[in-house]
Structures are given as structure tokens and as C-alpha cells.
Amino acid sequence: MVSLWPSIEPLLDGVAKPARYIGGEQGATVPLHGDDQVAWLLIYPDTYEIGLPNQGLQILYELLNERPDALAERTYAPWIDMESAMRAAGVPLFSVENHLAAGDFDVMAFNLSAELVYTNVLNLIDLAGVPVRGADRTSSHPVVLAGGHCTFNPEPLADFVDAFVLGDGEEVVGEINDVLAGWLATEPELRERAALLEGLASVEGVYVPSLYRVDFEGQVLTGISPKTPAAPAQVVKRTISDLAEWPYPKNQLVPLTEVVHDRLNVEVFRGCTRGCRFCQAGMITRPVRERPAAQVRSMIRAGLERTGYDEVALTSLSTADFSSIEDTVRAVVGGECGDQQVSVSLPSLRVDAFTVATATQIAHARRTGLTFAPEGGTWRMRRVINKLITEEDLYSAVDAAFSNGWRRVKLYFLIGLPTERDEDVLGIAELARRCVEIGRRHHRGPTIVASVGGFVPKPQTPFQWFGQDTAAELRRKVNLLKDACRPVRGLSLRWHDPEATVVEGLASRGDRRMGAVIERVWRAGGTFQEWSECFDLSKWEAALEAEGLSLESVTYRDREPDEVLAWDHLSAGLHRDFLWSDWQDALAAVAVEDCRWTPCYDCGACTDAGIEHVVASNVPPAGGSQGTGQDLAVGDRVPVRFVTAAGVR
Ligand code: SF4
């Protein structure tokens, strides 16, 4: 393997942000390559600034580099200017550590966190000089893997990725490495790619799409089944049972240039049981597994000392639910985790006064903004989506925020939700208007920013059967909101591009036929589709038409109750019965409580995996549950169905 640096360096003068391509971060490992190690290239298919902080990628990077039989380097998607320069100069995709050609690695492993990066995945495989379609690769090419949340419906990328990994990566990455090491130990002329793929399929949690037959009757998907006994009929996600055994990353990367989330990040728990029906992350990462508070503190202490950061984020899907949150915040703010003044950020807040009190305690230095996510504009809508925040919860949280010195509060909402009526959409404007009024009681010029995203139904959630709103309908709803918000001084409305929302839906729930569409968009130059300046709906529409597909058939249509879904052969641990029953509850606006504090609904995440929630304190957190307010008291069990192995009664 030869460093490409002499060819890369002359290109850097002519491109924006050359620091994206040079590596050299504190915490990086520059591995020595040897014949007895499996060489992994970990790839985030977006720019360096977006990809570098990704915790999943950094965890695998460290775990692989700790193994004597493996090594790992990283790369990110070169921005358009750099890609043009590379292609013109004949420079392939390269790693940022040793600047080695991507095609010389044994593995190219992608992190898939968002669907709109799919065309970038194809582009990066191509830029590496590797055939884009798996069927065209030989034993001399790297094996292409992918992990991350999008793998819970990987069918749109099935033609391009050799194997997908479902669930937590900490344990499975070693098992995959063992398979690869065994295969690489055979003489090169005796290596058969088919044998490698079968070996990978034997690892629990690994899905090898080329080993499965996909059947259609006309335009209707009728089944996905193994072609060989080497492939399981259903691939079940991997779940680590004890986060305490995995205190990673130990050496978080400190970039040389500006990136998002540029601070120390410490994961306090994984999984979520709030039961928000729109939230794929909450569904597919169950059960809850908390990190012991003492370990959180020691990771913060060691991380701050090593990196020099003065800010730490306690990460999870709902950090205020961490059972030791108050003690942890007190320890950090009180100087127990370092001798300098440290700010703490909680990226995901509950909507209640307790949360604001905590935020106030930690944000003594930086009171720039506070964000709450009621998601729905009316209580009915929030019951449908199971985001049980009452108006009183929101108003008292906003009042607490403004009275504690905050001047700007951001509210996140979704539009295009199931059963949504115009009154629910207009309810967003009304909630925001009342929050501005509350702010005026405390300050002259308070600002409320209402940020509105279009809802995309995701696989492995109760809303997976829902026909997404059309782009025109989403635009109409945005216009309703614009008209309602315009007269309110101090209220600023932001919205996400409805066309991009619709294409995200296309890639989220598409089946294997979507691969040809993605390939057409990529060949038409459609990369960086998650960037508004690059997104181009016309490319997607043309590709759909050329493949005989339509937005109507993939995104806008409700799924039938007994319809085969493109991800039915992949399991996030959730029973289909549970998801269907929860979908029916949603349609009837029936809410369910957090199963940490109520009896189990037998969704399957714990019961089938033999794992329980790992919560330090088995009582509801201070401040009560998530604003169940007028209808539910803390600890009350709401009327829900009881799910048994035999079905629902
Ligand atoms: S199995 Fe029960 S306790 Fe576990 S996440 Fe599902 S509903 Fe909650």
C-alpha cells in the first residue's frame, strides 16, 4: 500500500476547507499495515464536518484498532470541488490517516445514518475504483459493509452493499473480523467471494442481500426468502446487554477544523421506551441500557483532561430520563470532573420545569437558546403520535426558561402526521404564539423559533403502514402556518423542504427496485442530496419514471394490513403484532405510557432477547413522566391491549 499524499497535497490549494482531507486529529490512530491484519476503511458518506463526530464510527474505529488482527482508518465524502479535482488527477478515494487508496483495503464499511446519503454511497464506491454493484465485484475487491439505523430497511442499497449489520456494533464487529481473517488466510487464488458472503451471513445480525430471493406479482412485493440454507429466514438485530462493558470512545477525536457537535460527547444510555410512534431510533434501539453513573463521571473526567474541551454533551435519545442526571450534572458543574469551568449540554430535553431547572443550572455561561420538541400542534395529535406533552407542560417549561434568563426558545414540530387535520397544523401556530406571550411577561423581545419538519414514516415503527403526505399537501400546510405565524411579532417559522421530505420517504420504505432509481440519480450527478443546494427532485422523478415506479406507489400509499413489507425479513426485536396494535391505537388517539414505569407491553425488545431495561433507579424520574398531565397520573397504567404470543386481546 502506497501513500497517495504526493498526489493529494497539490490538490488542496484549490479546494475549500482542505483540513477535511489531512487527518492528524488528536486521538487518531495511524496504523501500520501488516499481512496478518484485516484492513478496514470506515466511511461516513457525508462531509468531514458532519461525519467526524459520529460516535458509532469512532467506537468501531477504536475497537478495531485495539485488535491485533485488525486495523481501521477513516474517510468521508469529499466535497464536490475536491471530488472533481481528484477525478481529474486520477486520485481515488483515500483514507485520512495514511492517505491510502480505499480500494486497497479489505473492507469498506459505511455508516448509514440518513437515507438521502444513498447516492453518495454509490459515488464513494465508484471513486474508490470498485464496481458499484456487488454482483460485479471479485475476490480482489474490498467487501462493502454498512451499519447504522438505515439498515433496518436496507433493500434500496441491496444491489450495492455486500452485507448489512443490524443493531449494536460493539460485539458483532469482532465476529465479522474473524470471518474476514479466516477468508484472507487462504491463498488469494483459492478465495471465493461466495464463500465469504456465506460466512458473513452466518454471523448473527448480518444480512447478506444477494443470498435472498425477492418475489413480485406485478408491482406487488410478495416475499423475500433465503436462496440458501446459509442465510437465515429472519435476521435479528444485535443488542449489547451491558453498556458498562463498552466505555467507548476512550479517545474521542479532536478535529483540527470546525465540525458539528465539537465537544466531548459521552453516551449515558442507549434505547428509549417513551414510545413516540414516529421515532424510528426509539423503536429500534430498545431496551434501555444505562451506563453506570460512576463510569459516566470517569469518562467525562478522562475525556476533558485528554481533549481540553470545556463542554460535554451527555448523549442519548432522552437524556433528562437518565436516572442519575441530577447527580451527574451537579458533579460536572461542581468541578468534580475537571478543574476548569465546564458547560454541559443535554441534546435531548423533556418538556417540563425539572428539565429547565437542570438546563439553567448547567448553562450559567451560555444561555443562547433552549429547544423543546412538542412535535404535534394539538393534544389530540400528540396522543396519536404518543408524545404526551400537555399545553400546561409546555407553557410552564417555556415560562421557566424565560424567567431564568433565556431569551430564545426553539420548538420542533412535525407536519404530515397520521390523522392530521388543519386544526392540528394551525395548533402549532397557536402554541408558538402563546409561548411568545409568555416570553413577553419576562423580556421585551423574546424569540420563539418554530421549526417544522415533514413527517417521513419509517420502517420498524407503528407508522410503517402510513401513506406519507404528498409534497403538495406538505407545502399547503406550510403555507397555512406561514399565514398564521406572519402577524405574530417575535415568532419565526422555519420549515424543511417538502420535496426532500418526500424523497427521504422514497428511500426509507422502498424495496429492492429502488436501487435502480438511486443508481440513475447518482449517474445523473445527484450527489449530496441531503444538502439543499444540491438536492434535485427532478432527477428522482425522472429516475422513477424510467424504472416504472412512482412516488404514489412507494411513499404516498397506505400499506395493506397483510402486505409484505420490504423489511419483514429483518427484525429490530419488535413483534409485528405489537406495531400493528400500536398503529391502531394511534388511529384512535389512544396513548401508552413509558414501559419503564408501567407493566411491559411485550413489544418483544426485552422479552425475546432475554434482556431487561438497565435502569439504576426503578422509580419515575423527578418531575414525573413526560407530561402525561390531565389524563394520566405518574405510575398510572393507561388502558392498553395485552399482547400475547398468540396475538392481541
Ligand atoms: S419488551 Fe416490554 S419492557 Fe421491554 S421495551 Fe418492550 S414493552 Fe418495554
Give the count of structural domains. Answer: 2
Q: State the separation between the terminal residues, measured CA to CA.
A: 62 Å
Structural class: alpha/beta
DSSP helix count?
A: 20
* CATH-assigned fold name of the largest domain: pyruvate-formate lyase- activating enzyme
Q: Note the main sheet.
A: 6 strands, mixed
Mean pLDDT: 90
Shape: globular
Q: Outline the low-pLDDT stretches.
A: 617-649
Task: Write structural notes for this entry.
The chain is α/β, with parallel strands linked by helices. It has 2 domains: 5-209, Cobalamin-binding domain (Rossmann fold, 3-Layer(aba) Sandwich), CATH 3.40.50; 263-513 and 549-587, pyruvate-formate lyase- activating enzyme (Alpha-Beta Horseshoe). 32% of the residues lie in helices and 14% in strands. The strands form 7 sheets. Strands 2-1-3-4-5-6 form a 6-stranded mixed beta sheet. Strand 16, helix 14 and strand 17 form a beta-alpha-beta unit. Bound molecules: iron/sulfur cluster. Iron/sulfur cluster binds next to loops.
